[in-house]
């Protein structure tokens, strides 16, 4: 899926109506924010940085404004929350005022993060700069360019798939982490390859998407389009030093690109 409209077309009518309402509230609160698809769910991007996400699950709708939820425990006491996600029923949506507060708090958090990063940057150009973040940083490995180093697996039951892969295939799993679409279970099957298991997108069948290691994700994406591929997901920075993109190669095969 390339657009929010395409995503919403796949969900039940009641969830679609609730998410359309949420979409309008967010768009009105931040008119200059850009709509996009991130982690396979609808999202808004502001000044090149991810702002908020939302989506539909089997039994509820979700809004993902991140860690700012911790500051709104009282307002959210009637809703289910966990790790930056608030869940609600289509017939009992989040109040518009609360959504606007959460979005503004998220904007303030992003601004504070940017200010903090600028303040901690080395001032002496002669000194070797230190890492400004404890987040994993991607280091391109020339010897692996062109190799499939990450496989994204979508499953109707990620926990069951994870258990089976660990038992039968011997894959080693790292601690999972939350995303707007649910828990993402990271695994490794060798020193140079691994991937993650996630919940299927609404309306999609289970499957897998290979990500090829490239020296420059944007350059590889542009080159793929020039060579006849169709765009699926434009380059998106997902962590420090890691940008991913997806194209559809001739013949209809989706191929992921991952690199700086």
Topology:
Layout: H1 4-8, H2 13-29, E1 34-38, E2 41-46, E3 49-56, E4 61-64, E5 80-82, E6 85-88, H3 96-119, E7 148-155, H4 158-169, E8 172-173, E9 177-179, E10 182-188, E11 194-199, E12 207-213, H5 217-226, E13 230-239, E14 242-249, E15 253-259
Parallel strand pairs: 7-11, 12-15
Antiparallel strand pairs: 1-2, 2-3, 3-4, 4-6, 5-6, 7-12, 8-10, 9-10, 10-11, 13-14, 14-15
Task: Write up what this structure looks like.
The protein is built from five helices and 15 strands. With 260 residues, the chain is an alpha+beta fold. Strand 10 and strand 11 form a beta hairpin. Helix 2 crosses helix 3.
Q: Could you estimate the helical fraction of the residues in percent? A: 25-40%
Characterize the overall form: globular
Query: CATH homologous superfamily of the largest domain, by name?
Result: 2,3-Dihydroxybiphenyl 1,2-Dioxygenase, domain 1
Order of helices and strands, N to C?
A: HHEEEEEEHEHEEEEEHEEE
Any idea of the CATH topology of the largest domain? 2,3-Dihydroxybiphenyl 1,2-Dioxygenase, domain 1
Structural class: alpha+beta
Q: Could you tell me how far the N terminus lies from the C terminus, measured between alpha carbons in angstroms?
A: 24 Å
Domain module count:
2
Percent in strands: 25-35%
């Amino acid at each position: 899926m390339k657009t929010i409209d395409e995503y919403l077309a796949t969900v039940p009518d009641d969830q679609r109506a609730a998410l359309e309402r949420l979409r309008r509230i967010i768009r009105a609160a931040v008119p200059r924010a850009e709509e996009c698809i991130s982690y396979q769910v609808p999202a808004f991007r502001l000044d090149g940085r991810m702002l908020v996400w939302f989506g539909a699950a089997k039994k509820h709708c979700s809004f993902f404004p991140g860690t700012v939820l911790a500051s709104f425990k009282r307002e959210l006491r009637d809703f289910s929350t966990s790790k930056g996600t608030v869940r609600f029923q289509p017939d009992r949506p989040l109040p518009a005022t609360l959504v606007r507060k959460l979005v503004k708090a998220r904007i303030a958090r992003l601004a504070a993060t940017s200010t903090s990063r600028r303040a901690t940057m080395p001032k002496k150009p002669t000194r070797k700069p230190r890492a400004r973040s404890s987040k994993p940083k991607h280091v391109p490995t020339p010897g692996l360019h062109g190799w499939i180093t990450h496989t994204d697996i979508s499953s109707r039951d990620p926990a069951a798939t994870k258990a089976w892969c660990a038992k039968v295939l011997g894959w080693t799993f790292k601690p999972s982490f939350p995303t707007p679409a649910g828990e993402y279970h990271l695994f490794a099957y060798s020193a140079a390859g691994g991937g993650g298991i996630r919940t299927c997108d609404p309306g999609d069948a289970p499957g897998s998407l290979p990500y090829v290691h490239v020296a420059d994700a944007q350059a590889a994406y542009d080159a793929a389009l020039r060579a006849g591929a169709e765009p699926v997901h434009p380059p998106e920075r997902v962590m420090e030093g890691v940008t991913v993109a997806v194209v559809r190669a001739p013949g209809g095969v989706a191929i992921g690109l991952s690199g700086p």
